[in-house]
Structure to design on (219 residues):
């Protein structure tokens, strides 16, 4: 079985990156992280990568005149690793259409809401403000329109009276850390095949997002 080659893009803490590293090291996931790239030099995720001998590249977007030039350099960096999949794991920058088209459909993103609800930022607060009774996490194929590509899988949890934005973020993270390694595992086993219209799972089109069943209490 082929080892799935990944480049992971981050901007911050990298707890999802850590979950993927842990799944690889415990042999639950047949993958290799060829590089971790951050647009923020101080992202803790770069330290996590170095601790596991993974090439950690800081590409500071502030050193580039515009988004196009930055994404062109990002594309060159990624191409040098020839990854099968580009994993957005808390990468907090909008990608240009040219960049996305260069790699489509092999870019995945994890988003802390039940898409199509709450594209963009502040998803937890928006779910609270709307008095939603449930909330969750989505993993989707990245297409040029922000947070709008086909959703592969969603994990859900209920919103309780005592929840606040921070507690929802913790619940979301618990799910995310199980969901990303699982989806990558499906890809490595070719159970999941990506395309920009409709991914295939076990050769069947994913017409509605698969529902992730948490193996531990996500609350
Ligand atoms: C996650 O909540 C993810 O859904 C969002 O950014 C956050 C990244 O967290 N896209 P971390 O850096 O992986 O800890």
């Amino acid at each position: 079985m082929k080892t799935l080659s990944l480049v992971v893009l981050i901007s911050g803490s990298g707890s999802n990156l850590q979950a993927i590293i842990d799944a690889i090291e415990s042999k639950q996931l047949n993958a290799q992280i060829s590089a971790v790239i951050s647009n923020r030099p101080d992202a803790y995720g770069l330290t996590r990568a170095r601790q596991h001998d993974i090439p950690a590249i800081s590409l500071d977007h502030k050193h580039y005149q515009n988004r196009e030039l930055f994404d062109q350099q990002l594309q060159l960096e990624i191409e040098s690793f020839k990854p099968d999949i580009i994993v957005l794991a808390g990468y907090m920058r909008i990608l240009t259409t040219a960049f996305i088209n260069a790699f489509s459909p092999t870019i995945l993103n994890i988003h802390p809401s039940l898409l199509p609800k709450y594209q963009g930022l502040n998803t937890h607060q928006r779910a609270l403000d709307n008095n939603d009774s449930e909330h969750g996490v989505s993993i989707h194929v990245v297409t040029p329109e922000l947070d709008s590509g086909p959703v592969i899988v969603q994990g859900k949890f209920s919103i309780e009276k005592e929840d606040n934005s921070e507690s929802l973020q913790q619940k979301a993270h618990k799910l995310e850390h199980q969901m990303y390694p699982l989806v990558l595992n499906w890809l490595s086993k070719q159970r999941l095949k990506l395309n920009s219209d409709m991914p295939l799972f076990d050769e069947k089109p994913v017409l509605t997002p698969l529902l992730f069943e948490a193996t531990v209490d996500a609350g």
The first strand starts at residue 4 and ends at 10. The radius of gyration is 17 Å.
